[in-house]
Specification:
The chain is of the alpha/beta class. It folds into three domains: 94 residues, no CATH class; 56 residues, no CATH class; 72 residues, no CATH class. It has ten helices and four strands. A four-stranded parallel β-sheet has the order 2-1-3-4. α1 links the parallel β1 and β2. α3 runs parallel beside α5 and α4 runs antiparallel to α5. InterPro entries: DUF1722. It comes from Nonomuraea mesophila. This is DUF1722 domain-containing protein.
Length: 249
Amino acid sequence: MAVERPRVAVDRPPADDRVLTGVLGPYVEWVGAEETDVDGRVAVGAMGGAGDAVGDGGDGGDGGDAGDAGDAALPLIVAGKDARALAHFAERVFAHARLRAALAGSGRARDLIGFHTRHKMQVLAHDPARYRLAGRVVAQAGVRPPAAVAAEYAEVFRRALATPATVGKNVNVLQHCLGMLGLDPARRDEALAAIDAYQAGRAPLRLPAALLHRQATGYVRDQTYFVPYPDGLRDALDSLVPDEHRGHQ
């Protein structure tokens, strides 16, 4: 599921933002604010002071969507946001880059179906309602005009990822994946204990997710939910979260 570096537009390099330059910077391609074929935008300066929730819909996300930039579902983050917001933004821009690459391909129904299949658990963790809607849209691939299906799917997918995941939704996904693995009783108990620890705030999400992913095969192994962005970026983001806040991450 390799993908080219996401293109992130910014009005000027956010050199004074250590998080953006030192953590996200090595994994994205910075482009000018005038660019339109991008996977996300950084609001700096005139669009809002560092830490201001420009466009924040009150959902605790990464700072909202870039409605003023001409695309209401495009990821937007305000320079100065914290690690939680940056992690959500990173997840969204990498998902957007994969979507952009997929839609730039052959346009065959099976390609869209394959993309959706790999992203099912990631979408479910963010927005169960749009997860079901996305499935209905994909079911029309090969029946409706490909361009119309792709456009509708892209809108549903991007808006689903804009909704922050929650502990409850993550637990649902983890249990769903566990149910598909067919583990022996000892390994199943180990996985359940890790999920319970995450749910109780005693462990980060990465613990049960990594445990399940190591033992997964086929469909579950290929889910982008387990690797939403490069491991190096995940390590860097984890290092920014204080130990007392690592539960529920």
